[in-house]
Amino acid sequence: MVELFKIDFDGTRIPFYFAAGVSSIAVIFNLLLPNTPPSAKGKKASLIDAFGFRTVKLMKERNFLMFIVFSFISMIPFSMYFSYCSEFLLDKDFKYISVSMNFGQFAEMFFLLTIPFMIRMVGLRKMMILGLVAMGIRYVSFYAGSYSEMSYFYFIGILMHGLIFGYFYLGGQIYINEKVPSVLRSQAQGFIFFVTFGLGLLVGNIINGQIISKYSITIDSVRKSYSCKRLY
Protein backbone atom coordinates (compact mmCIF):
# COMPACT_ATOMS: atom_id res chain seq x y z
CA MET A 1 0.00 0.00 0.00
CA VAL A 2 2.85 2.35 0.81
CA GLU A 3 4.44 1.78 -2.60
CA LEU A 4 1.07 1.87 -4.39
CA PHE A 5 0.00 5.27 -3.06
CA LYS A 6 3.55 6.65 -2.76
CA ILE A 7 3.00 7.57 0.89
CA ASP A 8 5.89 8.26 3.24
CA PHE A 9 4.27 6.51 6.22
CA ASP A 10 6.93 6.84 8.94
CA GLY A 11 7.49 10.23 10.51
CA THR A 12 4.04 11.52 9.47
CA ARG A 13 0.65 11.96 11.15
CA ILE A 14 -0.90 9.16 9.09
CA PRO A 15 -0.41 6.42 11.76
CA PHE A 16 -2.28 8.62 14.25
CA TYR A 17 -5.17 9.04 11.81
CA PHE A 18 -5.37 5.29 11.38
CA ALA A 19 -5.24 4.80 15.16
CA ALA A 20 -7.99 7.38 15.69
CA GLY A 21 -10.18 5.70 13.07
CA VAL A 22 -9.74 2.20 14.49
CA SER A 23 -10.32 3.51 18.03
CA SER A 24 -13.56 5.17 16.95
CA ILE A 25 -14.79 1.91 15.43
CA ALA A 26 -13.82 0.06 18.63
CA VAL A 27 -15.78 2.56 20.75
CA ILE A 28 -18.92 2.11 18.66
CA PHE A 29 -18.54 -1.68 18.74
CA ASN A 30 -18.07 -1.72 22.53
CA LEU A 31 -21.15 0.45 23.08
CA LEU A 32 -23.21 -2.17 21.25
CA LEU A 33 -22.03 -5.05 23.45
CA PRO A 34 -24.52 -6.56 25.94
CA ASN A 35 -24.59 -5.25 29.49
CA THR A 36 -22.57 -7.65 31.69
CA PRO A 37 -22.10 -6.04 35.13
CA PRO A 38 -19.48 -7.62 37.43
CA SER A 39 -20.69 -10.05 40.05
CA ALA A 40 -19.49 -7.72 42.82
CA LYS A 41 -21.53 -4.76 41.57
CA GLY A 42 -22.99 -2.79 44.48
CA LYS A 43 -20.49 -4.15 46.99
CA LYS A 44 -17.93 -2.00 48.74
CA ALA A 45 -14.66 -1.84 46.78
CA SER A 46 -11.08 -1.16 47.87
CA LEU A 47 -7.65 -0.60 46.34
CA ILE A 48 -6.77 -4.18 47.25
CA ASP A 49 -9.64 -5.37 45.07
CA ALA A 50 -8.82 -2.89 42.29
CA PHE A 51 -5.24 -4.15 41.95
CA GLY A 52 -6.26 -7.76 42.45
CA PHE A 53 -4.07 -8.27 45.50
CA ARG A 54 -6.50 -10.78 46.99
CA THR A 55 -5.18 -13.08 44.27
CA VAL A 56 -1.79 -13.20 46.04
CA LYS A 57 -3.05 -15.95 48.34
CA LEU A 58 -3.39 -18.20 45.29
CA MET A 59 0.40 -18.06 44.87
CA LYS A 60 0.66 -20.64 47.62
CA GLU A 61 0.11 -23.15 44.83
CA ARG A 62 3.36 -23.93 43.02
CA ASN A 63 1.98 -23.90 39.45
CA PHE A 64 0.25 -20.55 39.89
CA LEU A 65 3.36 -19.07 41.51
CA MET A 66 5.57 -20.25 38.63
CA PHE A 67 3.14 -18.75 36.12
CA ILE A 68 3.27 -15.36 37.84
CA VAL A 69 7.08 -15.45 38.10
CA PHE A 70 7.60 -16.43 34.45
CA SER A 71 5.10 -13.79 33.32
CA PHE A 72 6.97 -11.10 35.24
CA ILE A 73 10.44 -12.17 34.08
CA SER A 74 9.34 -12.50 30.45
CA MET A 75 8.30 -8.85 30.34
CA ILE A 76 11.80 -7.61 31.20
CA PRO A 77 13.32 -8.50 27.80
CA PHE A 78 9.94 -7.82 26.19
CA SER A 79 10.27 -4.16 27.15
CA MET A 80 13.44 -4.01 25.03
CA TYR A 81 11.38 -5.04 22.02
CA PHE A 82 8.58 -2.59 22.83
CA SER A 83 10.80 0.41 23.47
CA TYR A 84 13.83 -0.07 21.26
CA CYS A 85 13.03 -2.39 18.35
CA SER A 86 12.06 0.53 16.09
CA GLU A 87 15.35 2.26 16.91
CA PHE A 88 17.20 -0.96 16.17
CA LEU A 89 15.51 -1.32 12.77
CA LEU A 90 16.22 2.35 12.04
CA ASP A 91 19.88 1.70 12.76
CA LYS A 92 19.69 -1.20 10.29
CA ASP A 93 18.39 1.18 7.58
CA PHE A 94 14.88 -0.28 7.36
CA LYS A 95 12.76 1.91 5.10
CA TYR A 96 9.27 1.28 6.50
CA ILE A 97 9.66 0.65 10.21
CA SER A 98 5.99 0.98 11.20
CA VAL A 99 4.88 -1.36 8.43
CA SER A 100 7.65 -3.86 9.29
CA MET A 101 6.70 -4.00 12.96
CA ASN A 102 3.01 -4.34 12.13
CA PHE A 103 3.77 -7.76 10.67
CA GLY A 104 3.90 -8.85 14.31
CA GLN A 105 0.31 -7.66 14.85
CA PHE A 106 -0.87 -9.44 11.70
CA ALA A 107 0.79 -12.62 12.97
CA GLU A 108 -0.90 -12.11 16.33
CA MET A 109 -4.35 -11.99 14.70
CA PHE A 110 -3.58 -15.25 12.89
CA PHE A 111 -2.29 -17.09 15.95
CA LEU A 112 -5.26 -15.92 18.03
CA LEU A 113 -7.51 -17.82 15.64
CA THR A 114 -5.47 -21.00 16.15
CA ILE A 115 -5.71 -21.00 19.97
CA PRO A 116 -8.85 -23.22 20.26
CA PHE A 117 -7.28 -25.80 17.95
CA MET A 118 -3.94 -25.71 19.78
CA ILE A 119 -5.62 -26.21 23.15
CA ARG A 120 -7.43 -29.27 21.81
CA MET A 121 -4.31 -30.65 20.10
CA VAL A 122 -1.54 -30.10 22.68
CA GLY A 123 -3.25 -28.65 25.75
CA LEU A 124 -3.04 -25.22 27.36
CA ARG A 125 0.21 -25.90 29.25
CA LYS A 126 2.19 -26.97 26.18
CA MET A 127 0.74 -24.11 24.17
CA MET A 128 2.01 -21.60 26.75
CA ILE A 129 5.44 -23.28 26.77
CA LEU A 130 5.49 -22.92 22.98
CA GLY A 131 4.88 -19.19 23.47
CA LEU A 132 7.91 -18.96 25.76
CA VAL A 133 10.02 -20.91 23.25
CA ALA A 134 8.94 -18.43 20.57
CA MET A 135 10.20 -15.62 22.81
CA GLY A 136 13.64 -17.22 22.88
CA ILE A 137 13.54 -17.68 19.10
CA ARG A 138 12.78 -13.98 18.67
CA TYR A 139 15.86 -12.79 20.52
CA VAL A 140 18.08 -15.39 18.87
CA SER A 141 16.74 -14.21 15.51
CA PHE A 142 17.60 -10.59 16.24
CA TYR A 143 21.07 -11.59 17.33
CA ALA A 144 21.56 -13.79 14.26
CA GLY A 145 20.38 -10.97 12.00
CA SER A 146 22.76 -8.48 13.58
CA TYR A 147 25.64 -10.95 13.44
CA SER A 148 25.09 -12.12 9.86
CA GLU A 149 23.58 -8.91 8.44
CA MET A 150 20.73 -10.98 6.95
CA SER A 151 17.55 -8.93 7.34
CA TYR A 152 15.14 -11.87 7.06
CA PHE A 153 16.17 -12.90 10.59
CA TYR A 154 14.61 -9.66 11.85
CA PHE A 155 11.29 -10.54 10.21
CA ILE A 156 11.39 -13.95 11.89
CA GLY A 157 11.79 -12.18 15.23
CA ILE A 158 8.95 -9.77 14.45
CA LEU A 159 6.59 -12.56 13.38
CA MET A 160 7.30 -14.38 16.65
CA HIS A 161 5.49 -11.53 18.40
CA GLY A 162 2.14 -12.98 17.34
CA LEU A 163 2.94 -16.43 18.64
CA ILE A 164 4.27 -15.08 21.94
CA PHE A 165 1.28 -12.87 22.64
CA GLY A 166 -1.30 -15.34 21.46
CA TYR A 167 0.04 -18.51 23.03
CA PHE A 168 1.66 -17.34 26.25
CA TYR A 169 -0.02 -14.11 27.35
CA LEU A 170 -3.52 -14.84 26.11
CA GLY A 171 -3.01 -18.47 27.12
CA GLY A 172 -2.16 -17.16 30.58
CA GLN A 173 -5.46 -15.31 30.77
CA ILE A 174 -7.28 -18.51 29.82
CA TYR A 175 -5.30 -20.36 32.51
CA ILE A 176 -6.35 -17.82 35.13
CA ASN A 177 -9.97 -18.06 34.05
CA GLU A 178 -9.87 -21.83 34.56
CA LYS A 179 -7.72 -21.89 37.70
CA VAL A 180 -9.09 -19.04 39.79
CA PRO A 181 -12.44 -19.20 41.63
CA SER A 182 -15.18 -17.25 39.86
CA VAL A 183 -15.35 -14.59 42.61
CA LEU A 184 -11.66 -13.74 42.03
CA ARG A 185 -11.41 -14.01 38.25
CA SER A 186 -11.66 -10.31 37.45
CA GLN A 187 -9.20 -9.50 40.26
CA ALA A 188 -6.80 -12.16 39.02
CA GLN A 189 -6.90 -10.73 35.48
CA GLY A 190 -6.15 -7.29 36.90
CA PHE A 191 -3.34 -8.71 39.02
CA ILE A 192 -1.58 -10.44 36.12
CA PHE A 193 -1.85 -7.26 34.06
CA PHE A 194 -0.33 -5.31 36.96
CA VAL A 195 2.51 -7.83 37.30
CA THR A 196 3.32 -7.93 33.56
CA PHE A 197 2.46 -4.64 31.88
CA GLY A 198 2.90 -2.73 35.12
CA LEU A 199 5.82 -4.00 37.19
CA GLY A 200 7.38 -6.10 34.41
CA LEU A 201 7.63 -3.27 31.89
CA LEU A 202 8.73 -0.81 34.59
CA VAL A 203 11.60 -3.01 35.78
CA GLY A 204 12.45 -3.95 32.20
CA ASN A 205 12.69 -0.34 31.05
CA ILE A 206 14.91 0.54 34.00
CA ILE A 207 17.26 -2.41 33.34
CA ASN A 208 17.27 -2.02 29.56
CA GLY A 209 17.76 1.72 29.83
CA GLN A 210 20.94 1.05 31.79
CA ILE A 211 22.10 -1.48 29.18
CA ILE A 212 21.43 0.95 26.32
CA SER A 213 23.28 3.70 28.16
CA LYS A 214 26.28 1.46 28.87
CA TYR A 215 26.69 0.34 25.25
CA SER A 216 26.07 3.71 23.63
CA ILE A 217 28.14 6.75 22.79
CA THR A 218 27.11 10.33 22.01
CA ILE A 219 28.09 11.76 18.61
CA ASP A 220 27.09 15.34 17.80
CA SER A 221 24.49 15.31 20.59
CA VAL A 222 22.96 12.10 19.18
CA ARG A 223 23.21 8.90 21.21
CA LYS A 224 24.17 5.89 19.10
CA SER A 225 24.77 2.26 20.05
CA TYR A 226 28.30 1.23 19.20
CA SER A 227 27.55 -2.48 19.24
CA CYS A 228 24.07 -3.57 18.18
CA LYS A 229 25.18 -7.19 18.48
CA ARG A 230 25.65 -6.68 22.18
CA LEU A 231 22.23 -5.05 22.53
CA TYR A 232 20.31 -7.91 20.99
Task: Give a written overview of the molecule.
By secondary structure, this protein is mainly α. The protein is 73% helix and 3% strand. The chain is built from 9 helices and 2 strands, in the order ααααααααββα. It is globular, with a radius of gyration of 20 Å. 23% of the residues are buried. Residues 227-232 have low confidence and may be disordered.
Sum up the structure in keywords.
single chain; 232 residues; mainly alpha; two-stranded antiparallel ribbon; globular; disordered C terminus
Topology:
Layout: H1 2-5, H2 14-31, H3 47-50, H4 62-91, H5 97-122, H6 124-148, H7 152-179, H8 185-214, E1 216-219, E2 222-225, H9 228-231
Antiparallel strand pairs: 1-2
Report the principal-axis shape: globular
* Low-pLDDT regions: 227-232
Strand adjacency order, main sheet:
1-2
Broad structural category: mainly alpha
Order of helices and strands: HHHHHHHHEEH
Number of helices: 9
